[in-house]
Amino acid sequence: MSRETEAVLEVARRVRSAGGRALLVGGCVRDGLLGREAKDFDIEVYGLKADRLMSVLSEAFRLDLVGASFGVIKLHGLAIDVALPRRETKLGFGHKAFEIENDPDLPVKDAAARRDFTVNAIYMDPLTNETIDPWNGRADLEHRILRHVSPHFAEDPLRVLRGMQFVARFDLEAAPETIEICRRMTPEGLARERLFEEWSKLLVQGVRISAGLDFLRRVGWVRYYPELQALIGCRQDPEWHPEGDVWRHTCCCLDAFAAERPCPATDEDLIVGLAVLCHDFGKPLTTFFDKRKGRIRSLGHDDKGVAPTISFLKRLTNEDRLLKEVPPLVKCHMRPFSMWKSGAGEAAIRRLSAEVVRIDRLIRVAAADDAGRPPFPRDDIALKWLAAEAERLEIKRSAPKPIVMGRHLVKLGLRPGVEFGRLLSLCYEAQLDGKIKTLDDGLALLESISRKA
User: Most exposed residue of 51, 153, 179, 246, measured as fewest CB within 10 angstroms of its CB?
Assistant: First the structure.
């Protein structure tokens, strides 16, 4: 039994002794019904006022009161939130513009009406294992249906993106009435951080990512992501892409990525997933019908995809690492095959590693791209070659580390400045070309440069 499970039972026992009732609700109940291990727990307490509840909990737990003004109490060091049932009244623009009224005597069905989807509105008593299901969420879960709970759903636009990632994570089919209510909603200036949280869950937890994107398209929210919308209807050569347009290809690629994604997912998976999502953003800018060859072509789409990738990412996040490390994967996603075909040497592979930071990421992106052309089988000869070469050169998981560094220049009596940086760049370029393999080689190059100056 985990620490959280023991703590949940302790909370329930203490609440019962004080005359109240503690019920688990939300994702932990949903995941339990699906046979999945819950990682965090939400508890709603009925029959106790806020002051009494805090007094009961403080006897056994250290409390974090960061959400106390909203009726949420966090148990310190545990993935457990304890809350009172509450009413919410929409006051204005945005997903935070709510008046919240805590009411420990609120009927369970009324409390559940503020939740997003029926599959997240199932309650369970941890002491008796009794299930309370006022909105028939269990039936929807069994039939793999995503259905909003009540008209209150429309008060929080973030729920549309939550629907996107839930469809992908749990392989659900959205109910027609849920599609319709989402169509009438707009983002209302949602903060990037909240948007990015849902997109991240889509990519690192989605089992059928294509279903999540299809949900976004069906509810009309793809228009808020013009880089994605441009993929719809962008033609591809049917000989090379029998799966259909670029949108369909991207969906197939993302499902292939999800099928190979390790569990649990890591930050690496987010970087790779974003690169797979964006890898063909350049095709709408470059696609044309080549009359001479009688084919649809997208020459240079890898390079042209960088700008829309950056634009898309900036709409979601200001995280510097993602803005720097995802676009090079888009730019270079075709390189593994072209380099293998041309018999590229060590210098080219080292330069590729320096450009994309990690070759193993690029291999995953290229593998998903190759797999996204059903019914064609995968052809991994080029990727196996690149992986073996990168492993041999010890640059598969990191770019070559500079041999000549700033401290070496300082020892030679040089001071940081424009020339300082130029010399470091020259040494690194020579290292990538294989002309510098040791520090002595680097110092000799610096001496040669100084003699010519």
Answer: 51
Q: How confident is the model at residue 416 (pLDDT cuts 50, 70, 90)?
A: confident
**Dihedral angle, C-alpha 409, 413, 418, 424, nearest 10 °:** -10
29 φ/ψ angles, rounded to the nearest 5 degrees: -70, -45
Residue 360 has pLDDT above 80, yes or no: yes
The answer to whether 22 touches 126, Cβ cutoff 8 Å, is: yes
Burial class, 380, CB count within 10 angstroms (exposed 0-12 / middle 13-18 / buried 19+): middle
User: What Å distances lie between residue 261 and 17, 273, 369, CA to CA?
Assistant: 46, 9, 14
| Radius of gyration, CA atoms only, the chain | 27
DSSP 46: E
Phi, psi angle pair for 60, to nearest 5° = -125, -15
Alpha-carbon gap, residue 365 to 15, rounded angstroms: 51
Tokens (6 digits) for 22? 């503690």
Average pLDDT over residues 411-418: 84
Separation CA 453–CA 450 (nearest Å): 5
pLDDT tens readout for residues 208-221: 999 999 999 999 99
Q: Which of 118, 229, 129 is nearest to 163 (CA)?
A: 118
Residue 145 phi/psi, 5-degree rounding, is -115, 135
pLDDT band for position 378 (cuts 50, 70, 90): confident
- Work out the angle between the directed axes of helices 359-371 and 346-356 (0-180°, nearest 10): 90
- DSSP-derived letter for residue 280 is T
Does 180 score more than 70 pLDDT? yes
Residue 181: CB atoms within 10 A of its CB come to 18
Q: Please state the length of the chain.
A: 453
Specify burial of residue 6 (Cβ count, 10 A radius: 0-12, 13-18, 19+): exposed
